[in-house]
Amino acid sequence: MENHYTGEQEKVAKALFDNSCQYCHSPNTPLPFYSKFPIVGDQMQSDIQNGLRAFRLDRLVEGLKDPSKLSQADLAKLQRVLENNEMPIAKFRHLHWGSKPDEQEKVALLNWIREARKMSLPKETPNVDADRLVQPIPDSIETDKAKVALGHDLYFDGRLSGDGSIQCHTCHQLDKGGVDRLETSTGIEGKKGPINAPTVFNAAFNFVQFWDGRAADLADQAKGPPTNPVEMGSHSWDDIVARFEMDEEFKKEFLKEYPQVTKETLTHAIGEYEKTLITPNSDFDRYLKGDKTALTEQQVRGYELFKQHKCDTCHTGVAMGGQSYEYMGLYGDYFKDRGTPLTDADEGRFAQTKDPFDMHRFKVPTLRNIALTAPYFHDASAKELKDAVSAMLKYQSNVKQPAQKDVEDITSFLESLTGEFKGEKLK
């Protein structure tokens, strides 16, 4: 550990590194001499592979000095294993004596997690809780109303597409949970996309956009589909801008808010509108805010199972997802078991980084309104919500044979996540 931390940072870093967390959770860490021994070395390499897939300590430590780099999912994972006394695993402790955090170190880590989470809690929202991994959706977030109005019109405007037939709303329909409910979206001239469309609702809370994270924010995301030949099929952004420049009424209104009609200003307006597509006041939100009658007994059981299986470590925060990339198949070969050939869409984050570590690693989808957005996963392989729950328990939570009752309880809980848009519950 480089000794360049101060105050509480030093306590946190010391607690993590003194207990040998870096051996399994940081790449390229020098290993102890006995890692070269037969059997022991093989076991350590297996632990390292699994450890890196689940959690990256090096990226968490970056956030000690720069909180903007902290992942809410990393904080959630660390909190859960500390609370449950799950790390390090027993076989690791047999090799690395004294590698378990003591009570003082646990307190220091949990206090740091709590303070770090406070920075991301939604403002002016009752019953937020820095100890809890999930939070209620705020009633609104700050936007520019005039630009929102422009973005609204653009969202439903076919001139973004090459032949005028496709709108943003075509694949992200507000009356269908923010999706099109197809396995893959239908674009210009009936062309089929390669991947299941994620919901636009609550996308404002995502740390990046697209399954592979290739867009930094909503405005950046809006730049891609219009010129994608399979999606909206415009030849260039110059062509798109020219079409809008010809509309004198549009141009007059647009130039009241932006200096020019450009790719950047058009997509900024769309992104500003999409910030308003949030869905507060679900039954679960009301439960979090103190109404303990908002959930049924079955849904409460499902929520407890959701926490027990650590689903809330990846599906964390306000959106209950969208805060990290995670490896698909931590506890089994999902892609082999799927029984269909691999596609480019299966690469996940690797498609952007070309880092082997990112192969099959995807941005975690939000669970908000999940009951309305079937089919599920990037490949649409789960046709019903209960199928998705079973698969997640098996491949991400190491429940080899999920009990039907548990699946039903968790599914019922997920149905409580359907929120409201413009004061009306989504359908």
UniProtKB/TrEMBL annotation:
Residues 146-278, 297-418 form the Cytochrome c domain. It is found in: Cell envelope. PROSITE patterns: CYTC. Its main location: other. It comes from the Bacteria. The keyword Iron applies. One of its GO terms (cellular component) is cell envelope. One of its GO terms (molecular function) is electron transfer activity. Gene3D superfamilies: Cytochrome c-like domain. InterPro entries: Cyt_c-like_dom, Cyt_c-like_dom_sf, Cytochrome_c_Peroxidase/MauG, Di-haem_cyt_c_peroxidsae, Haem-bd. Keywords: Heme, Iron, Metal-binding, Oxidoreductase, Peroxidase. This is Predicted cytochrome C peroxidase. It comes from Haemophilus parainfluenzae (strain T3T1).
